[in-house]
Amino acid sequence: MILRLHLFLSLELVLGFDCSHIIKARGLFGGLWVCWKKSAQVHVINNDPQFKLFVTFVYGSPDKRLRSFLWERLDHLAHSIKDPWVLLGDFNSFLFPD
């Protein structure tokens, strides 16, 4: 485990990140490694193997026609996910045109 932790920390530096948080896997399942730069304020509040959270990262096309498909898919996801859900990304959309 110490060798694996050293590998993670080395990769973190090579990839240009300053900080990370590792959630250990249980066997072959459940591991997670989150990295960020010091300029981002990240606080790990809870590290519980029983807490389920869905995270979706989005990049919306600048092309309005392609973006409409994205919104349809997100609407479908919003109605199918019953657990906590985080939606992050660059949507290339505006609430108000001005």
TrEMBL record:
This is Endonuclease/exonuclease/phosphatase domain-containing protein. InterPro entries: Endo/exonu/phosph_ase_sf (IPR036691). Keywords: Signal. Residues 1-16 form the signal peptide. It comes from Gossypium darwinii (Darwin's cotton). Gene3D superfamilies: Endonuclease/exonuclease/phosphatase. It comes from the Eukaryota.
